[in-house]
Amino acid sequence: MPLDTIVVLIVVAGAAGYVGRMAWRSLAAARKPKAGCGSDCGCGH
Amino acid sequence: MVDIECSGDEACRLRALGFCEGTAVNIIDARDAMLLEVRGTRLALGSALTAGITVQPVAARA
Amino acid sequence: MTSIQPARPTGSADSGATEPRDQLLRVAIIGNPNTGKTTLFNALTGLRQRVGNFAGVTVERVEGGFKGPDGRRITVLDLPGSYSLSAGSPDEQVALEVLLNRDADHWKPDVVLVVADAVHLERNLFLASQVIELGLPVVIALNQFDVAESEGIAIDVPELIHALGVPIVPTVAKRGEGLDPLKKALITASTLPAPQRQFTLPAEVRDALAPLTACLTDAGLTASAAGMEALRLLGVQKSEAHLASVPRLQHEVQDAIATLKNRGYTPNRLESELRYAWIAEVMEKTVTRPRTIKQNLSDRIDRVVLHRVLGPVIFLVLMAVVFQAVFSWAAPLMDGIEVLIGAMGGAVGDRMADGDLKSLVVDGVFGGVGSVLVFLPQIAILFAFITLLEHSGYMARAAFLMDRIMRTVGLHGKSFIPMLSGYACAVPGVMATRTIEDPKDRLATIMVVPLMSCSARLPVYTLLIGAFVPTTSLILGLTLQGATMLGMYLLGTVAALVVAAIFKRTLLKGPVRPMILELPPYRLPSAWSLLVSVAQRCQLFLRRAGTVILALSIVLWAMATYPRSAVDASLPAEVQQEQQLEHSALGQVGRAIEPLVRPLGYDWKIGVSIAASFAAREVFVSTMGTIYGVGSENEAALTEKLQTETNATTGQRVYTPLVAIGLMVFYVFALMCISTVAVTVREAGGGKIGWKWATIQFAYMLALAWGGAWVVYAGGTALGLGG
Fold first, then answer.
1. What is the distance between the alpha carbons of residues B41 and C295, in angstroms, rounded to a whole number?
2. Among C252-266, C298-312, C465-479, C702-716, which range has the highest average pLDDT?
3. Looking at chain C, which residue has its C-alpha nearest residue A28?
4. Which among A25, A34, A39, A40 is the top mutation candidate for probing chain C, defined by the most C β-carbons within 10 Å of its own β-carbon?
């Protein structure tokens, strides 16, 4: 596989992982009232 | 300020603000909602509350 | 400014044997709302803050830290703003629990810092007097001292210290003045004996309260705190969580009440009467306040601003100005950013070999994130206005004006401020509902806050308005574009009111609670703090763009590029690209969704962008950017592409003004933000009940969105407005 394609794969996998983790974190945080907001609200507005 | 008649929570808060029977207040505007000043704090009170408040004029202070 | 403290007891703390220098000092901060408590907290802790929740409740918990002048580590817990320790709302309940050391976390404060507003000292002393009786060392920060001075209020601080028996430090938090003496005072206070009640109860009252006080000390409270609670409980109607385990408590309270009544007192106002009588004495000795020009000016402004007719008119005009400004002032800046990003993307692309990586960088990253970054100026301007209105004091008046309207839907003016915050972002708006005491009102407000068009919808509106609404001038500088923007915002607002009314009439039926709102005097906001707030908000926006949106853009790019399919090389490049897109993962999702969105007049590309933006609305723009390959410098800007895009089969324009408006309406109503869902779940009660309400919220908003868009499109087409 050419280098380019490998780089693309890594980047995309990383991005997908990040998105998944963000989604999981905000929804999981919602389950227990004890969890925090602050920087991981994900909203950032 | 003569009499306050309202349910528990609001009365509690009003008292914490220094708003109780016998207090002198300064009315800025009175319609169905009331705008007044008590002990240096400016308050806006909703109409449901103001219905239960009776105020008597007092000699103006300087 | 110096602070003076009560004389230290001689010969004690300097032995040095068990130097508490290395021990963590815990400080709890409490104060009335609007005293600058948060500013002081921020000034002390900088950005070293941790945000969370108090255990078991949905009250926000902010803790920060700093190093004292002697090198000692100090951690500060910001307790919610309260007028008194009587637990009216969950906020105040939590504060009381922490201070009595009966909270679930068992975070025991070593020192309590009371932030008092020098301008409203009398009222602030109520809370201070309660806190002084807790049996903990207390320091008072007399904040906004500069404002008091400028209004001619003279406070004799040494005399006040003498009267209260606690160290007092004048501060000006927003300028950072008084912080060092304050820090020193906190450390010193921890070594001093705890202060005590400075007035005496009439003997009859003391006797009547004795059994109740004993009951409380038996339950574990210190003698001093028991005394405070006993007095406080006389005026409290309901049982409180932190005292639920005290045996015979209600019985003792009732007894005390009965005894006092027999002796001619009115128990439920006793605390207020006694404390304020003492406070009046103290004020007499220490404070001189003329009736200032500023207060009169505020009153006079209020007579106009809160006028029955003029008030709402002024409000609407202000709103129109804001929206027009957001639209037109930002335009040149946005164009600039667009050019800059286009050039950067082009320059980078030129250095890369053709291929997937180049496409990822140019189309995915620059195209995706770039199209969102363009909106930074708008966000900045919108937020600057909102902050300006807040700091000047106008917001409270707006809440008052809105009270009338809110009342007709069954809420009250207090719901307005969370809703207004929703114009920036629904997440803080939903959290701001904590100030609403009635749980049904609170829930109803939470349900409708996301309908207030948040700043994430701005890119969508701007894109569509910019492409399809002409710039015809209406009146006085207001253009059709600005008016359309205003219209979208109004639509959301009206919908919020209607939905709230429905909720309050059905699922959340309850009485209309009366409103008590404090109106701070008008104030010229400091340009500096305004700048800081806006800068903070911009930073958050950029961070979000650089992380979530970047990641989503990359993922979407991948979905739009793969799987690759074999295309007929004889077809023109544009058509080739289109076919590739159709067969990619994204394209297939889009095709699958298409039947759902066709009645709304959309093709599968829009359908896909909508689906993608359920995670974050701005992604609509970046997805469109990616789909239309706007990242490279050879392509026209997204706007042009949208205007010229034609449907391959029918030959007609895909995007017409009608479609654009319908699409905007969809975005006005739809809930497309994971963060909002998350915070709703939490604020609605967490767990099952939280999810139930969040689901209801999502479902009704989606129904509204689809329905609204359909009405616009189908209705408009039927009326011949399409095309």
1. 11
2. C702-716
3. C678
4. A34
Tell me which residue of C179, C182, C184 sits closest to C69, measured CA to CA.
C184
Extract the tokens encoding C82: 């309260």
Rounded Cα distance, C27 and C75, in Å: 6
Q: Please give the single-letter amino acid code of residue C224.
A: S
Contact C150, C107 (CB under 8 A): no
- Higher pLDDT: C622 or C588? It is C588
Q: Tell me: pLDDT of C384 over 60.
A: yes
The predicted structure's pLDDT at residue C10: 39
The residue among C54, C94, C564, C674 with the most chain A CBs within 10 A of its CB, best to mutate, is C674
State yes or no: pLDDT of C1 exceeds 50. Answer: no
Q: Cα–Cα distance between C629 and C557 in angstroms, integer?
A: 10
Please give the residue that has the higher pLDDT: either C333 or C428: C333
Query: Is the confidence at residue A35, as pLDDT, over 80?
Result: no
Q: What is the pLDDT of residue C116?
A: 93
Question: DSSP assignment, residue C369?
Answer: I
Task: Say if CB C561 and CB C535 are below 8 A apart.
Answer: no
- Give the span between the Cα atoms of C152 and C168, in whole angstroms: 20
Strands B34-38 and B25-30: antiparallel
Contact B44 C412 (CB under 8 A): no
Per-residue pLDDT band at C700 (split at 50, 70, 90): very high
Which chain A residues have a beta carbon less than 8 Å from that of C356? 4-5, 8
Put simply, the answer to whether B16 touches C403 (Cβ < 8 Å) is no
C410: left (phi over 0), alpha (psi -120 to 50) or beta: left
Query: Scanning the structure block, which residue is given the tokens 């990383």?
Result: A14
Tokens of C667: 């975005």
Size of interface A-C (CB pairs under 8 A): 134
Residue C33 · residue C81 · CB < 8 Å: yes
Distance CA C407, CA C414 (A): 10
Question: For C238, what's the count of Cα atoms within 13 Å in the CB-facing half-sphere?
Answer: 13
CA distance C260 to C209: 9
Average pLDDT of the residues in C39-44: 82
Q: How many alpha carbons lie under 13 Å from residue C200 in its C-beta half-sphere? A: 4
**What does the pLDDT read at residue C703?**
93
Residue C635's pLDDT is 37
Chain A residues with beta carbon closer than 8 angstroms to that of C552: 15, 19
Greater confidence (C250 vs C707) lies with C707
> Judged by CB atoms within 8 Å, which residues 511-530 of C form the interface with A?
none
Q: Which residue has the higher pLDDT, C569 or C215?
A: C215
Residues 6+ apart with CB under 8 A from C86: B12, B13, B16, C92, C232, C235, C236
Whether the CB of A12 is below 8 Å from some CB of chain C: the reply is yes
Pull the structure tokens for residue C19: 């130097």
pLDDT at residue C131 in the model: 92
CB proximity B39 to C under 8 Å? yes
- Quick check: A10 contacting C, CB < 8 Å? no
Rounded-to-10 torsion of CA C644, C650, C655, C658: 140
Measured in angstroms, the CA of A10 and the nearest CA of chain C are apart by 11
Domains of chain B: 3-54 (2.30.30)
| CB neighbour list of residue A8: distance below 8 Å, 6 or more residues apart | C356, C357, C360, C558
Contact between chain C and chain A (3 or more Cβ pairs less than 8 Å apart):
yes
- Measured at the CA of C204, the angle between CA C202 and CA C207, to 5 degrees, comes to 110
Average pLDDT of the residues in C476-504 = 86
pLDDT of residue C547: 80
